[in-house]
């Protein structure tokens, strides 16, 4: 982590690359087009796909993921200015995860790749939580998850 960012707990919009900002602006447009007043994770996913100059879009395209949300094709969604207050809590966490990833890599800014990695980190954490609370906390699967979260081997 870079020395000037290692103690940060919130994010700074200046730490976003131009492509990441553009993806968030597309996400804001998707939120508006679907009638939402907040940018939610599915809108961010759309924005990452729509920002064609970022690496994340090529990853999503290569894996056959589309720009549809809740059955709506949002190809015509506008790009709108976005700020922190436009984000729902989960999207805020995803962006924080993206900044953690960029800091871990020693990058000064978070790009679309880091936003996608932040998205995946959130999904992984949520899945781990759901699995450990839905299964026997002392069973073998829970022990595997615990060992992995501590950096050990199962």
Automatic annotation (TrEMBL):
Organism: Candidatus Curtissbacteria bacterium RIFOXYA1_FULL_41_14
InterPro entries assigned: Clp_N_dom_sf, Clp_R_N
Domain Clp R: 16-131
Protein name (database record): Clp R domain-containing protein
